[in-house]
Write a structure and sequence with these properties.
The protein is an alpha+beta fold. It has five helices and seven strands, in the order H-H-E-E-E-E-H-H-E-E-E-H.
C-alpha cells in the first residue's frame, strides 16, 4: 500500500511543474498539468476499452482492473483510477467524469535494489513500450522500444519532460530512486498544425 501511495503521488507530479523557462519558484508560474485543464481532450476509448485492448494485444503484460481513488475536491470533472501490476509497477489514469474516457494514462516504476532490479526495469519498459503501441498501433515492437528508449533518455533526471508526436503527448517524470513515470496523453490539434503537417 505504501508503494501505491508513492506511485499515485507521481501521478500528480505534473500538477506542480513549472512550465516557464527559466524555472522559478514563484507560485504564479505554476500551472496545472494539461489534462487537468477545463476542456482538456480525451482519447476515444474509455478505461475499460483500453484495458481490454491492452490485455488482448499483450497477453504476457496483463493489467488488472482499475479502481477509482479519492480525488481532490477541486477536480469535479476528473476521476483518478489505478491498477497494481506488481510490487513495484503500477498504472494509473486521469479520466473524464461520466464517460471514463482517458485524459492521461501512466505507468510508474518504483525502483528496487538488488539482483532483481535489471529484470524489474526490463518488465517496466515492456509495459511502457506496449502503452505506446496501444495508442500508436502503426509502430512495431522494435519501433516502440526505440521510441521509449529515446524518450526516457531525453527525460533522464528531469522532473518533467514532454514530447509531442502528432495528436499524442509523451511525458516522462524521472525522480531517480523515488520512481519513474511514463505517460501518454491526447492533445488538441489546431487547424494550422493540421495544415502544416499536410493532413
Amino acid at each position: 500500500m505504501r508503494h501505491l501511495v508513492a506511485a499515485l503521488a507521481l501521478l500528480t507530479l505534473p500538477v506542480a511543474v513549472v512550465w516557464a523557462d527559466p524555472p522559478s519558484d514563484s507560485p504564479s508560474t505554476l500551472q496545472a498539468a494539461p489534462y487537468l485543464l477545463a476542456g482538456a481532450p480525451t482519447f476515444d476509448m474509455n478505461i475499460t476499452q483500453f484495458r481490454e485492448k491492452f490485455n488482448a494485444e499483450n497477453p504476457t503484460l496483463l493489467i488488472n482492473e482499475f479502481r477509482a481513488i479519492d480525488a481532490n475536491a477541486d477536480e469535479v470533472n476528473l476521476i483518478r483510477a489505478a491498477s497494481k501490476i506488481n510490487e513495484n509497477l503500477y498504472t494509473s489514469s486521469a479520466l473524464e467524469r461520466g464517460t471514463l474516457k482517458i485524459k492521461s494514462i501512466q505507468i510508474t516504476w518504483l525502483p528496487i535494489q538488488g539482483p532483481e532490479q535489471k529484470a524489474a526495469r526490463a518488465k517496466a519498459t515492456e509495459y511502457m513500450a506496449a502503452l505506446i503501441r496501444t495508442f500508436t498501433p502503426s509502430l512495431s515492437k522494435p519501433q516502440s522500444v526505440a521510441k521509449l528508449t529515446k524518450l526516457l533518455s531525453n527525460g533522464k533526471n528531469k522532473r518533467y519532460y514532454a514530447q509531442t508526436d502528432g495528436a499524442i503527448r509523451y511525458v516522462v517524470a524521472d525522480n531517480g530512486e523515488k520512481g519513474l513515470t511514463f505517460a501518454v496523453e491526447p492533445i488538441k490539434l489546431t487547424l494550422s498544425e493540421t495544415l502544416n503537417n499536410g493532413e
